[in-house]
User: Fold this.
Amino acid sequence: MSNSSSLNEFLLLAFANTWNVQLLHFSLFLGIYLAALLGNGLIITAVACDHHFHTPIYFFLLRLSILDLGSISVTVPKSMANSLRDAFSYSGCAAQVFFFVFFILAEYSLLTVMAYNRYIAICRPLHYRTIMGSRACVQMAAAAWASGFLNALLHTANTFSIPLCQGNTVDQFFCEVPQILKLSCADSYFRETGLLVFSACLYFRCFIFIALSYVQSFTVVLRIPSEQGRHKAFSMCLPHLAVVSLFVSTAMFAYLKPPSLSSPALDLVVAVLYAVVPPAVNPLIYSMRNKELKDAVKKLIQWVLFQQQ
Assistant:
């Protein structure tokens, strides 16, 4: 196949050729997907239905859970289907790239906003209600989603306008931009690569902002005389820091690593770590040190079980 216009479908990475291993792949991804649906669904329902959670921190957490559900729903169900049939239509691959990039970059922008929210709550508590009003929260969330949409549109249009000269086999379980670029002609490869580097530089500024906000927040927290106060502040920051660290480190490695470090096994592990694991573990991370959220989720589960009796 000489160029993208002649492609009708892509062949995605097959985890194995034996039926037993394919079934194991299907079952494992199904379990992860159901865990993500359950965890994020419980958080969305608990936050939306309890007026005690109608605060900025839970406003952003609810939208983070929505983005997590979106990102994992774009990749994992299709991967489960591909364990039985590994072909993916050209238009379906383009749609998957768009929505995946949209959800991932919108989530990263929202994580930056959440870091800012925690910085204001800890370092400027007297001005918190003024700065983080309902209108400001809506505007920041909308900006995060808009930045994800514009970047997704740009990267999808650019990636699928590049001629593809290296066949149609994508060495990944979903349509990932770096893997599609491997199929491009040599003279067109650097166009999207340059765009990826440019976007990475922009989003690296977000990472620097997150890091600096946490340095200042931890400096203030360590000055709190009350051990209970320090514990409460750390319980706000540490889950978010864990989520950001896992997400940023694996995603940047996946998109910016040199070709010499690329191998099917390594690419697969990294993709699972940044595309599949975070949406499944984020609900656990955010609720593990949050007694109010844990209690609300328990009450919700008890209410559901009572309704079924």
Notes: The first strand starts at residue 9 and ends at 11. The mean pLDDT is 83. DSSP finds eleven helices and two strands in the chain.
